[in-house]
Design goal:
Helix 2 links the parallel strand 2 and strand 3. By secondary structure, this protein is of the alpha/beta class. This is Oxidoreductase.
Length: about 290
């Protein structure tokens, strides 16, 4: 009986992966969740999921949590924390506990671009190298921007404020967190994914200017689109309260999108889902209904 442990189980991706594992027929007693806190796990426990408490910074807690586990989904830790130490601890503890296979959530990188995304790229590269040299089976999943979080970049009320970003026609291939979670569950619950990488770009290729046009069409209400400088975009974010280093981090994503860092459409996501992923128009229509 294969035991699957999903980290970050109180987050959207972790919890979504568990839910999709259950939908795929994986028995609840073969699924374990890992959480840093005891709060917000009641619904999982009610479904028969064992939730273990562990922290990426607490090595011993990870060794205990990984005991008896065959596969681990390593949901990457958030920016502005020590991702190097956390991911190293998780991989090393998994090896010590006898885990056989780690699936790692990385961020898509355009081949040959050499772009270093602040707070992300260097720790991803480090984690992937540690994983490949660990002796464990691994699967690395390269994630695109999440479609259900794109409004974080263009604003929560574009019909009133318009869309003002340091971008124009640069394309990306986003996917929703629900679709990505379903792909993770497919990999965790089936064989043949050992020592492979997948690029999870979605079926829809879209730019920020496309988003403005789609939003306008859906409500028959104009959404003004304006390309601004990165400096002006940073200033607009800081004016809303976040510190400058966070504004610069957000801006680096928009600039990377505009320059094609996340435009790869390998077909891997479609293959894992068994269908095309949602278009932005389909997704946003469901939220406006």
């Amino acid at each position: 009986m294969t035991k699957i442990l999903v980290t970050g189980v109180t987050g959207v991706v972790g919890k979504g992966t568990v839910e999709h594992l259950l939908k795929k027929g994986v028995p609840a007693n073969q699924i374990i969740g890992l959480s840093r806190k005891k709060e917000a796990i009641e619904d999982l426990v009610a479904k028969g999921i064992e939730v273990r408490i562990g922290d990426y910074f607490d090595y011993d807690s990870l060794v205990q949590a990984f005991e008896g586990v065959d596969k681990v989904l390593l949901v990457s830790s958030v920016a502005f924390t020590d991702r190097f130490t956390q991911h190293y601890n998780a991989i090393t503890a998994a090896r010590q506990a006898g885990v056989k296979h780690i699936v790692y959530m990385s961020i898509m990188r355009k081949e040959g671009s050499g772009r270093i995304m602040p707070e992300i790229t260097e720790s991803d590269l480090f984690t992937e190298q540690v994983l490949k040299s660990s002796g464990l089976d691994y699967t690395i999943l390269y994630n695109p921007p999440f479609m259900d979080l794109l409004s974080f970049y263009y604003g929560s009320n574009p019909y009133e404020t318009g869309i003002k970003v340091p971008a124009n026609n640069g394309k990306m291939a986003p996917a929703t967190r629900n679709e990505v979670s379903e792909a993770y569950a497919e990999i965790l619950s089936t064989q043949g994914h050992e020592n492979k990488t997948y690029s999870l770009g979605g079926s829809d290729s879209i730019s920020f200017s496309d988003i403005a046009k789609i939003l306008s069409e859906l409500k028959r209400q104009p959404v003004e689109f304006t390309t601004i400088t990165p400096e002006d975009y940073i200033d607009s974010i800081v004016a809303q309260g976040p510190p400058k280093h966070v504004a610069e981090f957000i801006t680096s994503w928009v600039v990377a999108i505009e320059e094609g860092e996340f435009e790869q459409q390998s077909g891997d996501l479609e293959q894992l889902l068994g269908r095309k992923s949602q278009t932005f128009k389909e997704y946003i229509s469901s939220t406006l209904a």
